[in-house]
Amino acid sequence: MVISRKEFFKEPIVRVNTTSIIFPRMCPICGSTVTKTVRVSTTPGRKRWLRPYWDPLHGPRAQSKFGNSLPQAQIFMVPVCEEHHYGDASEWRYRMMCLIINGIVISALFMALVIMGSNFWLGRANPFWVYPILAVFVIALVLSCFAFRSNPFESAFRIVGFDAALQYIWLQLKNHEYRDAFLNENPMSSELVSWIIRQ
Description:
This protein has 5 helices and 6 strands, in the order E-E-H-E-H-H-H-E-E-H-E. The chain has helices at residues 60-66, 88-122, 130-147, 152-156, 176-185, and strands at 5-17, 36-42, 74-80, 157-162, 168-173, 190-198. It has a 4-stranded antiparallel β-sheet. A hairpin with a 5-residue loop joins strand 4 (157-162) and strand 5. Helix 2 (88-122) runs antiparallel to helix 3. The chain is elongated and about 75 Å long.
């Protein structure tokens, strides 16, 4: 049984037909002249994985088993300026490195907490290496917050989702000037909405 729920937005979002999207020739972040494009891809109704090969439905075996029942990825080429162009490969490498380091640091922190608890129970002093591990854990936590925060493009141009028929996409555009230009470029296929129904 599919449960539908209404979701409201403080700022209206754009509802646009996926088959006829024309992006304005201005940067969605700063509104300046565009010189590059950023590739934005999303798959309707599919869970997003950190790496494509982690997805159990990725690869020729899953495609041959499920055939055309797998949802098709939607790819959009969004024009941006030189300053806000980014490649996501380095960003994902940085995030992956943070995950690996956090795993090691959390393991060391667990051992340090066990030893601290044991020493507290026995009334002994803690070894010197326990406190640097606590400090490294705090530093790793702060660096992870920086690594996984939204970059300027993700904050300015966000895909909220798709309608039930997968015909329309909902976009949250932070820059009002860009949003107005987007609506002017797509007058027949786009509109502002303040609420959506999620399936």
